[in-house]
Amino acid sequence: MASLAAPRNPTREVRAGPVRIGGGSPVSVQSMCATRTRDVDATARQAEQLRAAGADLVRVAVDNKRDAQALAAIRERTDVALVVDLQEHYRLAESVAPHVDKLRYNPGHLHHHERKRSIRDKVAWLAEVAATNDCALRVGVNCGSVAPEYDEKFPEDSVGAMVACALDHCALLDDLGFASYVVSLKDSDPGKVIDANLRFAEQRPDVPLHLGVTEAGLLPMGEIKTRIAFEQLISRGVGDTIRVSLTLPNDRKHEEVSVGRAILEDIRAGRFRSVPPLAGLNIISCPSCSRVENDAFVELAEKVRELTRYAAEHDVTIAVMGCRVNGPGETDDADLGLWCGPRTVNLKRGTERLGAFGYDEVLDRLRQELDRIIAVP
Fold first, then answer.
1. Looking at the domain assignment, is residue 7 inside a domain?
2. CA-to-CA distance for 126 and 134, rounded, in angstroms?
3. What's residue 322's pLDDT?
4. How far is the CA of 133 from the CAs of 71, 95, 181, 207, in angstroms?
5. DSSP 3-state of 339
6. What is the pLDDT of residue 3?
């Protein structure tokens, strides 16, 4: 890959299996399997499809021991560099690390288990597991799940909370003598993604950064939001690996990789696209992944987009989340939020929960609430 438009930040190199992140290496592209991880055949097949589309790394989510046990068989069926998303279950790291190249933990989720154990002890254990198994770590800080103490310290500055959390975890890992880590700071607002990564890079230019706009949503707006962030950051030399998070059905998951590659190619060639301002209706939706508890989630997101077109000129944000992990927290900042369970959809207005509705009835109630917000007669 030719050099990008601006000199890259002088980050150190972190190795995730065969993939080099930072240290002047080409910007790598990631994606994530949307299959059930316990379904070895489907997950291995999708990992290979993503690799064939150009993914350098493929992430899978591990929610329980059954998922963890599947990793060994998945590893045997694909050569792509594998990343495991530990989410709320950091204790599963020991069982999955021998079969993957990188572990992602979310600092905001470390308090869910073993509450009497300190965060430092938990991070130290993760670093030891990673070092023993020659794995890299990603410190994955997300807007909707920042550890509560940082929200308390930065009540009016969500970006500041994310950056402070990331910096503290870097300091922990540094103190432990573990250097094979990267950081991500993600939000569904590309402006906040730009702000957070620039703030962090100014203070820790040595740490490789994983870029992404979380829950970028459906095409074409999902690509537009992602382009805004990537163009502004990579053109400044910030960013070492990327993930494009789009709401797509399983058989189109590879398009995340294609979009990411196209954005990188355009930046490298100096083709910066004019993008419309993000005024008016803003629909946020998470990328489909193995944590989605009902496959009707993607169809629901598409129906929400169609249903709400009449409100396109109103400054309203609607969030559609596919699981219990990201759903409750990452809908709080939206005017209206939907997060999907196995049989019902939880509807919220801001932080207020309005109830759980069937997939066949939630759209009617959503429209009622949207009409109240925009005061349609």
1. no
2. 12
3. 84
4. 14, 10, 14, 21
5. strand
6. 40
Radius of gyration of the chain (CA): 20
Is the C-alpha dihedral spanning 248, 252, 257, 261 positive or negative?
negative
Using DSSP, state whether 356 is helix, strand or coil: strand
Instruction: Name the DSSP class of 217.
Output: B
Within 8 A by CB and 6+ apart from 235, the residues are: 4, 5, 6, 267, 272
Q: Residue 165 in contact with residue 108, Cβ under 8 Å?
A: yes
Establish if 164 belongs to a structural domain: yes
The one-character DSSP state at 154 is -
Structure-block tokens of residue 125? 């254990």
Residue 200 inside a domain? The answer is yes
1 domain-assigned: no
Structure tokens at 251: 């058989």
Which tokens sit at 242?
Answer: 């990327």
Length of the chain: 377
Token pair for 218: 């459906």
Look up residue 305 and give its amino acid.
Answer: R
pTM of the model: 0.81
Which amino acid would we find at residue 4? L
Q: Check: CB of residue 345 under 8 Å from CB of residue 328.
A: no
Find the farthest-apart pair of alpha carbons in the chain and give their distance in angstroms, rounded: 64
For residues 162 and 147, what is the distance between their CA atoms, to the nearest angstrom?
9
Least confident of 172-186, 235-249, 268-282: 268-282
Q: How large is the angle between the packed helices 255-268 and 221-234, nearest 10 degrees?
A: 40
Same domain, 334 and 252: no
Q: Six-digit token pair at 147?
A: 């550890």
Query: What pLDDT digit, counting tens, does each position of 239-265 carry?
Result: 999 999 999 999 999 999 999 999 999
CB of 90 closer than 8 Å to CB of 122: yes
Cβ pair 43, 70 in contact under 8 A: yes
- Please tell me whether residue 309 adopts helix, strand or coil conformation: helix
Residue-number span of the structural domain to which 28 is assigned:
14-268
